[in-house]
Each structure stands twice: as C-alpha cells, then as structure tokens.
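Fold this: NIPSNAP protein
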Amino acid sequence: MITIHLRYQIDPEQLDTFTEYGRRWIRLVNRLGGDHHGYFLPAEGDNDEAFALFSFPSLAAYEQYRIAAATDPECIEAYELVRGTGCIVRFERRFQTPLFGDEAELRP
C-alpha cells in the first residue's frame, strides 16, 4: 500500500473554493480506485496551509489513477477550478508507507 501526503499552501481568502476542490477530489479519488482519507483545512494557527491523505494498493495503481485522471472530464474540471481561481499557491506531494496499529507490519 502507498499513501500520498499532500501539503498545500492555499490562498486563505479562497478557503471556500479550496474546500469545494477538496470535496470534488475525495469523490474522484474514491471513484478512480483510491481510498481518500480526507482534507485537513486550517482551523487555528497558519491560515494558508492544508493537507490531504489518500491511499492506493500500490504505486502501480496510483500511476493508473494518474493516467485516468488526466483524461477524466470531472478531474479536468477540478484542475480548472484551481487554475481559474489560484486558490492553491503551491503543493508538495510525498509517498509514504502506512503503519496501522500496534500489531501491524509495514505494507509495501
């Protein structure tokens, strides 16, 4: 299993737009074979930082998702929401292997 950790720098004046973007991607990632763990929006402290986590069974499955998302009309529409508004200033993407619970082993 692979988990993708996204850190976003967002425009705090466009939190509502970024929230809409997140709602769309939760549904889209799940529809395209992933397991979205949610978006984590600013509440206290920094008002321009948000996070998202989602998992795929393997890196190969994630790559298939990326290929499908590049031509999926709903995904393209979500990308365009960001391009048109500038609600995301920048983002970082990290790939991690999750460890679940006390008895769990790392899942490659």
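The helical segments are 15-31, 59-71, 73-85. Residues 2-96 form a domain with the Alpha-Beta Plaits fold (CATH 3.30.70.100).
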